[in-house]
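User: I'm writing a short methods note and want a consistent example. For Sirohydrochlorin cobaltochelatase, I'll paste the sequence; you return only the structure tokens, no commentary, since I'll be parsing the reply automatically.
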Amino acid sequence: MAGRPDTSPDPTWRRARLILVGHGSAHHPDSATPTRELAEIIAARGLFQAVRCAFWRQRPSLQEVLADAALGDLYVVPNFAGAGLFTDQLIPQTLGLAPGQSTTRRPGGRLVLTPPLGSHPAVPGLIAQRVGEVVAAHRLDPSATGLLLIAHGSRRPGGSGATANALVETLRRTGRVAEVAAAFLEQEPAASDWPHHLASPNILVLPLLIARGYHGSGDMAALFDLDPATLKAASAPLGPLERQGRRLWIIPTITDPATTADLVLDLVRQSANKGALPP
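Assistant:
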């Protein structure tokens, strides 16, 4: 797999703190659950002095967690599916980073901001592997099967679909299925128009929603007439589902929690080694 994460521990992490930053929701607090669970998995490995969560739309906020952070190195990983306003502007500004800066000094050490989790170079390979498993398990004809990636997007001018669209191009080149398309919850092309995005009779649907909170269950369930609780609890693909004259398989996650934790650690390692501290 291209971009396979390096899972070997770095001894300097024992003196450092790790913060996972999620979007969160004031109206749907369970949106924080996947980020909290990921933090627990990483903390159980005993690699860092402490592992904390922070959220943009609920507490604890990133400002609160930063204020509570002790001296020493601090690594901040955005638990987002791709680049956008939060990862490119809001989070760096809160950390006191200048545009394009990912590392700065802090009392007793340094602060390192990594790219968003969903941008890890292993993600396309993990998706291709998952797609291949579903095609094989259900004996689907790849030439009659399409893959629909559903991402959040943004209502702001220009949207935030760069990561999803780049994934589409990469996955098309793998040839695992006949066609690949992306659709969005909050920008065009709209996920609600999903029957028009692919022509294949068999469609695999994969949400690019790192935090499986409301968007990963409520919005997805509404799109495909599913029970939100069933979708939220699913670990294996749901299907075949007969919808709009097509057969659908909903793939709930890109990979397993342990591998997701490996991606976080590899982002920390890559970012820590990426550049020198400013003077």
